[in-house]
Amino acid sequence: MNKFHPDYIIKMKDIVKEGSEILRKKTEEVKVPVSNEDKNALLCMLQYLKNSQDPDLSKKYNLRPGSGLSANQIGLYKRMFAALFEDGQKDNEYMLINPKIISHSLNMIYLPQGEGCLSVDREVTGIVPRYARIKVKAFDITGKEVIHNFRGYGSIVMQHEIDHLNGIMFYDRINTENPYKLPDNVDIRSLY
Questions:
Q1: pTM given for the model
Q2: Which residue out of 21, 28, 86, 161 is catalytically annotated?
Q3: Residue 161 annotated to the active site
């Protein structure tokens, strides 16, 4: 039984920090139909992202803003995550279970300022190459199979979270010898 119920508010103390073993293990598939326990955890994760992006609530609860949160970041060995980000003019929110990238573009993108992570309390500089476009197959919170196409920032968020579910941290993708070196033989550009 996990502690995540509809009234539970995830705070920074609930977020697993880098160095913890759970962030380096591949998470386990979630059983479908989705249990109420898993649904509640996903709803709490999405609510954290909403709270963290709200200036008043993030100040009240002392939250770092996030665009995505995977289950292992709150101590659950489960293949699911929540994401909330603005792309163009609209807010996009997702709660994805057992996500898989089923196709991707050849060209790549990166965030010029680098990526951040709620589990990493230090600044990490460098280029994190990501596919510019991806297609993801997953289950939604109701247990229905869905396919989503992501591009740009949304594509970066999804790849970051799916990496978490596979025990990969964003900085594992940064060139260790030269953090700002672009990968060779790849069409890659800055997102902004």
A1: 0.96
A2: 161
A3: yes
